[in-house]
Design goal:
With 157 residues, the protein is α+β, with helices and mostly antiparallel strands. It has 2 domains: 82 residues, no CATH class; 58 residues, no CATH class. The chain is 45% helix and 11% strand. Helix 7 crosses helix 9. The longest helix is centred in the N-terminal third of the chain and has 12 residues.
Length: 157
């Protein structure tokens, strides 16, 4: 059994994540995860987090740099950005069957086939290819069934 961390050890770990970092990648590696949030009041969570750690960081730099970073987007349990080495620890995930699969049993294989071999695809493109069906989302509202299918496939890795 691992002993409980001491207060000094917790303070040292917190201080390491607050040290100024040379770049967005170095900061992401040091933290292991940066929560993302699209709400811009007062600023997005990822920008506030990185502005405090990366000298010269400007709002939106994470998204602008994303194609060049060793990073992935995923859930841990909140949505955010993490180094690929951290994301690799999350997959494959055992995810129980979803309401989406009960309502649309053939949709996941169809969506997988539609996106397989494509480097990038927008959810609207998949919806146009496979139809505009709707399904209940996690908040009780309606979402595109193909977008929810993409979410399920992404969650499973």
């Amino acid at each position: 059994m691992t002993p409980d961390p001491t207060l000094a050890a917790l303070r040292a770990a917190a201080a390491r994540t607050l040290d100024p970092q040379r770049s967005v990648q170095v900061a992401l590696n040091a933290m292991g995860f940066v929560q993302a949030d699209p709400i811009r009041a007062p600023a997005r969570a990822q920008d506030l987090t990185l502005m405090a750690r990366v000298p010269g960081y400007r709002a939106g730099d994470l998204e602008r740099l994303y194609p060049t970073l060793d990073a992935e987007e995923d859930m841990l349990p909140n949505y955010g950005f993490m180094p690929r080495s951290v994301q690799a620890l999350l997959h494959p995930r055992e995810v129980p069957p979803t309401r989406l699969e009960a309502a649309h049993p053939d949709l996941l294989p169809e969506v997988r086939a539609a996106v397989q071999g494509r480097e990038e695809v927008h959810p609207r493109e998949v919806a146009l290819l496979l139809g505009q069906g709707r399904t209940v989302n996690a908040w009780g509202g309606q979402s595109s069934a193909t977008t929810r299918a993409l979410d399920v496939l992404h969650r499973r890795g």
